[in-house]
Amino acid sequence: MSGWIPAHCPLPTRWSAAVDPGNVHPEHPRPQLVRPQWRNLNGLYECAIRPAGEACPSSFDERILVPFPVESSLSGLGREITAADRIWYRRRLAVPRAPQGCTWYLRFGAVDWRAEVWLDGRELGVHEGGYDPFAFDVGALGGEHELVVAAWDPTDDGPQPRGKQARHPGRLMRPFFYTPSSGIWQTVWLELVPATHIEALRLTPGGNELHIEARLAGAWGNERLQATASAGGSSVGAAEGRAARLVLRLDDVRRWSPDNPFLYDLELRVVRDGEVVDQATSYFGMRDVAVRRDARGVLRIYLNGEPIFLHGLLDQGYWPDGLYTAPSDEALRFDVEQTKRLGFNLIRKHVKVEPARWYWHCDRLGLLVFQDMPNGDRMTPGVPIGGVGLFEPTRWLGARGIKRTPASVAIYEREIDAMIAALASHPCIVLWVPFNEGWGQFDTLGIADRVRALDPTRLVDAVSGWVDAGGGDVRDVHVYHPGPRMPSTPDPQRAEVLGEWGGLGLEVEGHRWPKKAFAYRTFKTAAELEQRYAVQLAQLEKLAERGLAAAVWTQTTDVEGEVNGLFSYDRTVLKLDADRLAERNRKLMAGAIAAMRRRHRGGRDPQG
Predict the structure, then answer these.
(1) Which ranges in 234-323 belong to alpha helices (H)?
(2) Which of 66, 215, 326, 447 has its CA 20 to 30 A from that of 571?
(3) Residue from 419, 468, 418 nearest 445 by CA
(4) Concatenated DSSP letters of 370-429
């Protein structure tokens, strides 16, 4: 197979030069369910882009570096495709034969959007969904094999969840949309598993107990599950019972929080007739989150029984060279580490789902996450772009949203169910956001109830911004200019959240995308930007004391035409002074929490 070079990128990150096609994203892609025997299948594949209606091509005339989207520079193609195209991947595999009683599973982190998979000409199956992992049992294997994958992505020509991806992001009213990320965009790998094995795992903390749900594949029905929790190498709790549900009790619980992101190690064993038939390792954090009333009756967000003010960044998760896919795990980690370093305790993962390792970095570093469901289908009619200064567009729109077809509804429900199932064990996630700013919004209260039923342990933000139907645990408004603000009358049942604010822009010469720049308000110098940020933080502190529970600043980095990031798009330039920014952010959160606690003195039970 011939060599690889990146396609042209007008603004590569510093990690681009280190990308090695023979060792790309080599880390284990699933930190919460690890077995030692696995093989990374990232790397160079043969590639062919053909009309969507055609069968598998006889010749593959290009090369693509997996797992980078076909439109990205790091894929080696940088190719624009349409809904009329299908992307074909092919590679040869040399795989040792699985030991007796074991099998190989072929796993995909994510493929956008429809994936068809063949091995040695035999169709393994079809998966639809651009953000969730899937797998196929491929048997004992052994020797040489041919893997073929076909991917089709309609982007905004279809109703499926797609986030900020758009075929023509530069057109009128589209500064908020970005280049698509089609095809394979997360790690492809083989895992050796016993015939009877843990197929899926869900870890739910509650009080001093960890609730373990382990779904088994190939079960006989007489298996038992053993679980051992440890801290610093020493066992701190163990449990055994019938698979697939188990309760592990801890005597001395260390709570997970941004200030102390303590994670327990977890060893799992499946036992049948006294013999261990499967074992894997995982980790978990013990924490709880709720909305409660303080001594004055103000609704606040509580973490581990204590009030907390959440102050964070809107994070789009885009890269100039890799688009949806970070150039490396070091790059993926960078955004999380910098968010923590700058004194924030929250990330709103905006209309995108990241690889499992991103959430692992948040878990171990101590960043809370508001997790959005990626947008799909159409915008709610009549909703203006940007949401500047708008609190209650439902005054003229109602909460009706859009009318989705039965097929569109089925796609949305299947994919939000899959997102929650895949991410529910991560302690960093404290809130789910099913809809953002009216994009694809429908049956708002019904979907909020669906999310609550899927995960009753976290908060639900029924819709972030604009078309508020009155459901969920928080009322979430977006205000860019003038801001920050919050509704003058508190919601009687929900905590107040400023889900997007800021949007202050600064163009950094030599570090911006070659597209017309956009920000809600643009400054000429870093000094002017920093002065304005300080003023707005002082205003935010007053809102926090008044009752605001969380605020999300737009945004972590510039993204294509948007220049309102704290970092330039290539992550080279931080536009504000890091030390002063961290000091101001920590002072804001400390002051807000102190005010909340002062109100408890002599007051009633904060759970009210």
Answers:
(1) none
(2) 66
(3) 468
(4) EEEPPP-S-BPTTPPTT-TT-S-THHHHTT------HHHHHHHHHHHHHHHHHHTT-TTE
pLDDT tens column, 53-109: 999 999 999 999 999 999 999 999 999 999 999 999 999 999 999 999 999 999 999
Question: Could you give the percent of the chain with pLDDT greater than 70?
Answer: 94
Closest residue by Cα to residue 485 from 529, 541, 543, 538: 543
Helix 329-341 to helix 356-365 angle (10° resolution) is: 30
Q: How far apart, in whole angstroms, are the C-alpha atoms of residue 540 and residue 592? A: 10
Map tokens 């010749």 to a residue.
59
Instruction: Note if the bond before 536 is cis, omega within 30 degrees.
Output: no
Q: From the CB of residue 171, how many other CB atoms can be counted at a distance below 10 Å?
A: 10
Measured CA to CA, the distance from residue 207 to residue 255 in angstroms comes to 10
pLDDT at 434: 98
Query: Domain 208-284, what fold?
Result: Immunoglobulin-like (2.60.40)
Per-residue CA distances from 433 to 302, 319, 364, 496 (Å)? 18, 23, 23, 14
Q: Tokens at residue 506, please?
A: 């600064």
Determine the Cα–Cα distance for residues 188 and 325; give it in Å rounded to an integer: 13
Q: Looking only at Cα atoms, what is the longest distance across the chain? A: 78
Global pTM reads 0.95
Which pLDDT band, with edges at 50, 70 and 90, does 402 fall under? confident
Distances (CA, A) of 61 to 43, 67, 90, 114: 17, 19, 11, 22
The pLDDT score that the predictor gives to residue 430 is 98
Domain boundaries, the chain: 16-189, 208-284
SS3 content of the chain, % helix, strand, coil (to 5): 15, 35, 50
Nearest alpha carbon to residue 576 among 607, 517, 533, 543: 533
Report the alpha-carbon angle 192-198-204, nearest 5: 135
Beta carbons within 8 Å of 165's beta carbon, 6+ residues apart: 112, 155, 156, 177, 178, 179, 180, 181
492 Cβ contact list (under 8 Å, min separation 6): none
Predicted confidence (pLDDT) per residue in 10-51, tens digit: 999 999 999 999 999 999 999 999 999 999 999 999 999 999
pLDDT digits (tens, 9 = 90+) for 284-315: 999 999 999 987 789 999 999 999 999 999 99
Confidence (pLDDT) at 171: 62
**174, pLDDT greater than 70:** no
Mind listing the pLDDT tens digit for each residue in 228-286?
999 999 999 999 998 788 999 998 999 999 999 999 999 999 999 999 999 999 999 99
Nearest to 561 by CA among 22, 177, 78, 64: 177
Radius of gyration of the CA atoms of the chain, in A: 24
Q: Which residues contact 356 (CB under 8 A, 6 or more apart)?
A: 29, 30, 31, 32, 109, 133, 422
Q: How do beta strands 224-231 and 264-272 pair?
A: antiparallel
Cα–Cα distance for residue pair 404/398, rounded to 1 Å: 16
Task: Report the alpha-carbon distance of residue 370 to residue 499 in Å, rounded.
Answer: 10
Could you tell me which CATH class the domain 16-189 is placed in? mainly beta
Among 222, 233, 225, 266, CA closest to 425: 266
